[in-house]
Design goal:
The chain is an all-alpha fold and 455 residues long. The chain contains 19 helices and no strands. The chain is globular, with a radius of gyration of 20 Å.
Length: 455
């Protein structure tokens, strides 16, 4: 790679690493947060979903902002805002403050990932792009190792509050590399931002999520539940209508005329919904049900992450050579079968990591490694490079909203309590979602590159 290519890939990896790192550390810290601040499972859900609501809604706007004002400028703003929000979370005096600060952090996270992938798409072409995306996938997966491990160590030996300050170092390094790169920012002149669409999307996501999280406490018949649900559904319907007729939509519905883009995002919904659900369920249950300390719970998924780091780049190159369809089909199904092995898990004192957890982690990791790089490449490859920022934002929004909805449904899925029975219910749901994602990929994805659809 050239100097600019190396710097670009490093910046893209580090900027995305910041957002991914926060997602991994928070799951390990949830039991400690609830123990100090209170609020039970609802606080755990809101700690995750407050971030995902703003991330999922505003990541669409971020894609347009990236195209309109320049990817590098948006990256800088996102990095600084993410750092400020992280400090606020570390100082949170109560659950409400924590949830609000997490929402602000989600806004910052929304600015990072689309711009990062758009930088890769703009600099790399053809097979080199596939390898670069594979490298990006593998290296950002380091967050899955560093996050849970450091988060667990901080929770066990220091404080959960310091967990949210871990990302300060990669933020600083990324800002320095951006200055060293000295790359001229690219922007699309005359592009107007659909702020009304952003508001409708946020309300459309926030209302139903609020209802799903609080429903176990108030019941479906309570006005505080059904009213936000109804208003949220109406707001999201208004958002879709707005996108159909807006001159510069943040969700260009015409993109879905591409078969691979449509099928890839539909598969993303099921696959990343499953990932969002299993990440919180396994992390919490290994502490509260199996009796592991936070450090060991954070290290439980280490083998699957190592597999992703070692082989994601290779899988990305193979996908560019042989096509994404086979990988996107086999990968999720293998991951789903691996998830079912979590049914072997038993609570303490009968818990045994080596026989009850490790087999699931290994098989799940193999499936996930086969899936992620080909999925990203297939979706971005279906859209013209000029709209890479928006295409990346749409796919990331689909992924985050899927996780958002499944986490919001956690109380319903586990029956109100994350005991052994609830853990097994969540395991079966996760496996089913992954297998459906594989089937959708087989039916919908075509390996011959389609004509790019840009609007």
């Amino acid at each position: 790679m050239t100097r600019d290519e190396r710097l670009t890939l490093s910046i893209a990896v580090l900027a995305s690493f910041v957002a991914f790192l926060d997602g991994t550390v928070v799951n390990v810290a949830l039991p400690a947060i609830v123990e100090e601040l209170g609020g039970g499972i609802a606080t755990q859900q809101w700690t995750v979903d407050a971030y995902l609501i703003t991330l999922g809604a505003l990541i669409l706007v971020a894609g347009s902002l990236s195209d309109a004002f320049g990817r590098i400028r948006i990256l800088r703003i996102g990095l600084v805002l993410f750092g400020v929000a992280s400090v606020a979370i570390a100082a949170a005096p109560d659950p409400t403050f924590l949830v609000v600060a997490r929402g602000v952090q989600g806004v910052a996270g929304a600015l990072l990932v689309p711009s990062s992938l758009a930088l890769i798409t703009a600099v790399f072409d053809g097979k080199a792009r596939g390898r670069a995306i594979g490298t990006w996938t593998g290296l950002t997966s380091v967050a899955m190792i560093v996050g849970p491990f450091l988060g667990g160590v901080f929770v066990d030996f220091l404080s959960w509050r310091l967990v949210f300050l871990i990302n300060v170092i990669p933020i600083g390094v990324t800002l320095v590399l951006l200055a060293v790169l000295g790359h001229r920012d690219e922007r699309k002149e005359g592009l107007r931002i659909d702020y009304l669409g952003a508001v409708l999307c946020t309300l459309g996501l926030g209302g139903p999520v609020f209802a799903l999280i609080e429903q176990p406490n108030l019941g479906w018949g309570h006005p505080g539940i059904w009213l936000p649900m109804v208003l949220g559904v109406l707001a999201f319907a208004g958002f879709l209508v707005r996108q159909r007729f807006a001159p510069n939509p943040i969700l260009p519905l015409g993109m879905f005329a591409s078969r691979n883009f449509l099928a890839g995002n539909l598969a993303t919904w099921f696959i990343y919904g499953a990932l969002g659900l299993t990440s919180i369920v396994v992390g919490v249950y290994l502490q509260e049900g199996a009796g592991l300390p936070a450090t060991l719970a954070g290290l439980a998924a280490l083998p699957s992450t190592i597999l992703m780091i070692l082989f994601s780049s290779r899988v990305g190159a193979l996908s560019a050579r042989f096509g994404a369809r086979l990988f996107m089909t086999v990968g999720p199904i293998v991951a789903g079968l691996g998830t079912l092995l979590y049914l072997l898990v038993r609570p303490e004192p009968d818990f045994d990591y080596w026989w009850q957890v490790l087999p699931a982690v290994l098989v799940f990791g193999i499936g996930l490694t086969l899936t992620v790089s080909p999925l990203t490449s297939a979706i971005l490859g279906a859209i013209e490079p000029a709209r890479a920022g928006t295409a990346s934002a749409v796919n990331n929004a689909v992924a985050r909203v899927a996780g958002l909805v499944l986490v919001a449904m956690l109380g319903i899925i586990v029956g109100g309590q994350l005991d052994l029975e609830g853990f097994q219910r969540a395991t079966v749901v996760t496996a089913a979602l992954l297998i459906v994602g594989g089937v959708i990929s087989w039916i919908g994805i075509r390996d011959l590159r389609e004509n790019a659809v840009g609007d």
